[in-house]
Design goal:
The chain has twelve helices and eleven strands. By secondary structure, it is an alpha/beta fold. The chain folds into two domains: about 210 residues, Metal-dependent hydrolases (TIM Barrel, Alpha-Beta Barrel), CATH 3.20.20; about 110 residues, no CATH class. It has a four-stranded parallel sheet with strand order 1-2-3-7, sandwiched between helices. It has a four-stranded antiparallel sheet with strand order 8-9-10-11, with no helix packed on it. Strands 4-6-5 form a three-stranded antiparallel sheet, with no helix packed on it. Strand 1, helix 1 and strand 2 form a beta-alpha-beta unit. The radius of gyration is 21 Å and the shape is globular.
């Protein structure tokens, strides 16, 4: 039904690590049987045992397209991911939601069992804690409880050393104290894999994080730097400095590729009749200012940004205007062309 109305299947794969091949099989099957274009969200080969596998995963995308499937992917330009800190705990602890998790962790014996599982290599579940290399690869990114704010920007290893605690006790303690609201940064990707994905013609870009603000109520919330500086990092670091891909290709992936993947037929190109969504940047100075430790920083080098023809950034300053609106795909109000799209 979705394909009849021009829909697309955007998927967060079931697995990005040990079961990634089975996960790809599922994506390809859905694309084939539903006759729908499929897009894999933030493609990665996660955890150390899978480092270096990105080329073979990209080859599988190529082969699927050669077989007639309209499949593609996106990724963000950072070699660390983000998730809830409670995802470092085994699945049985989290079963049933937040309140069930907190009830379990209130029991000392259950906490000990959870600690044992966190240190166990297993194929039964994807161990995020070990997949990040343990305590040194897990950084506290954002907490809700103000009393826990000093932990932000510190790794579990740093906190454990300062407090002379088992790092697993630190994880469980923060999860309990923040009622499972804490988010973390995870060192679960290899830079070579990130570069391979960014450079590949079937992979566009994403942020995978919501927009934040440097002032007002939202300024007290931190996040992954991808929510602040992904486009600037690609243009400045990976295009200008590292030459991982050409500027023209990076712009294509940020504009027409993304619009086509989402089925937005009047966006993504500078063309008569299209919406005037434009960004003017200096390729010599554009750069991301956001870091993992201090993400809440706007990027440099963007002089003008227009949304629907109205400047929202003018001479590098926010104008306060809000001309954006919800975008509708091709199935809204009329049936789309049945012709499959090819990138």
């Amino acid at each position: 039904m979705a394909a009849r109305y021009g829909g697309a299947y955007f998927t967060h794969q079931r697995s990005e690590s040990g079961r990634i091949d089975a996960s790809l099989d599922e994506v390809f099957r859905i694309a084939r049987e539903a006759k729908i274009r499929a897009h894999i969200w933030h493609l990665k080969t996660a955890y150390r045992p899978n480092f270096g596998r990105m080329p073979e995963i990209l080859k599988r995308l190529e082969d699927a397209r050669a077989a007639g499937l309209d499949v593609a992917a996106n990724c963000y330009p950072w070699n660390r991911a983000s998730n809830g800190l409670d995802a470092c705990l085994p699945p049985w602890v989290r079963e049933g939601g937040r309140e069930a998790l907190l009830r379990r962790l209130a029991d000392p014996a259950t906490r000990e069992r959870a600690k044992t599982d966190m240190a166990k290599e297993t194929a039964e579940w994807e161990n995020q804690y070990l997949g990040a290399g343990g305590a040194a690869g897990v950084m506290v990114a954002e907490v809700l409880d103000a009393k826990l704010k000093p932990y932000e920007g510190k790794t579990i290893a740093q906190i454990a050393a300062a407090e002379k605690k088992d790092p697993r006790d630190v994880v469980i303690g923060i999860v309990r104290a923040d009622r499972a609201n804490c988010n973390c940064i995870l060192a679960i990707m290899d830079e070579r894999d990130v570069r391979a994905a960014l450079a590949h013609p079937l992979v566009s870009f994403c942020t995978d994080s919501p927009a934040k603000a440097a002032d007002g109520p939202l300024s007290h919330e931190t996040s992954h730097p991808r929510g602040w500086g992904s486009a600037a990092r690609i243009l400045g670091h990976y295009v200008r400095e590292e030459k991982v891909l050409r500027l023209e290709e990076a712009v294509r992936k940020m504009t027409s590729f993304a619009a086509e993947a989402a089925g937005l037929e009047d966006r993504g190109l500078v063309k008569v009749g299209f919406a005037a969504d434009l960004a003017v940047f200096d390729p010599a100075t554009v750069r991301s200012e956001a870091t993992f430790e201090s993400p809440n920083r706007y990027s440099a080098g963007f002089r003008y940004v227009a949304v629907n023809g109205v400047l929202v950034v003018d001479q590098g300053r926010l104008t306060g205007k809000t001309p954006g609106h919800a975008l509708r795909g091709p199935g809204y109000g009329q049936a789309p062309s049945p012709t499959p799209r090819r990138r």
